[in-house]
Amino acid sequence: MWRRRCVTLRRKAAGGFVAEPPKRGKLGAMSWSDSIAVIGLACRVPGADSAAALWRLLRAGGCAITPTDRWESAEPGGGYGGFLDDVAGFDAAFFGIAPREAAAMDPQQRLALELGWSAVEDAGVLPAALAGTATGVFVGAMGGDYAVLAARGGAATLSPHTFTGVQRGMIANRLSYVLGARGPSLTVDTGQSSSLVAVQLACESLLRGESTVALAGGVNLLLTPEQGLAAARAGALSPSGDSRPFDVAANGFVRAEGGAFVLLKPAAAAAADGDEVYCLLRGGAVNNDGGGESVAAPQVRAQAEVIRLACANAGWRRPSWATSSCTAPAPARATRSRRRRSARRWAPAGPPASRCWSARSSRTSATWRPPPASWALSRWPWRCAAASCRRASTTPHRTRRSRSTS
Length: 406
Hints:
Mean pLDDT: 78
Shape: globular
CATH superfamily: Thiolase/Chalcone synthase
Low-confidence stretches: 1-30, 347-363, 382-393
Number of strands: 16
CATH topology: Peroxisomal Thiolase, Chain A, domain 1
Number of helices: 14
Largest sheet: 6 strands, mixed
């Protein structure tokens, strides 16, 4: 019933697939003494309702940015976005939720329920089997548009279900409740990095033994125009509705919505259980830009440092080949800084051993706020699968690129 993925750890172990543990790196008090296996995934993004469909969209160089029909906007760039086909539909009975309660729930909670459940099933695990287990749930989310809509209706429209329906913390908690999971349950808001930090926290929880398996991901829905209006007035949105990361023609980003989840397990446990694995997470790191020109301006030095720390925690020094997957906000200045931080990390001394690809996807589905990291985890395992099956490396088609930034 489920698709065959890249590798089966138990099957490949005898053939030498399982590498030696990476050199121990430090992440505070944490040691990445074991890799984390991605054993299940699910995503829903503009133009694609699965990871396989997303990869096909990227390979074809498709574009899912469209004019919005949800609201009117006179601001430059405010009328474009990457939108899901349906954010209202939800099978409440399937999850044992009463219709009135479902109506009061933030659609981001509903999307997290659907994608989290699908990621578990994609791993070949019965969701009911997680009840009572130390399964952690870590979700990145920064939007709260549904609370704004609820407030617009006035006090007369509020119900007891609104109390839990619009709290962002309930996005993760609702998923834990439906699964009966007893591990940590966190909704993380660190801005655009929210889902990446959620994945990092999930990995740390697994390495500590706090969780036996973990669901990690992010959701974002665009339900009101106010945030887009503010971004447009700040000059952040592309007036042409065209996000062009790493391009001299970059003139802003385009907002988008969607969600993605991965089911994670320690690699040793995945091997013992015979789980099929999309890919291995070898190391990670989190930091902050700190002071700088402005609170929103990327700081190349700090961002290059977090890449270096992640590689050190993975036991990597300087790989002979690498693919850098980036999500860029698209203003020319920001994309230049992201390219420079990658170059600074990979070229500390001497010429590069081989070419390092920088793959970006904001042009296809605009810029998610905040699930781009979990979305990247949804697309790159399919790249690995395609490469291993066809014995050829593939990279996404570069859409409408004129000239790269320096």
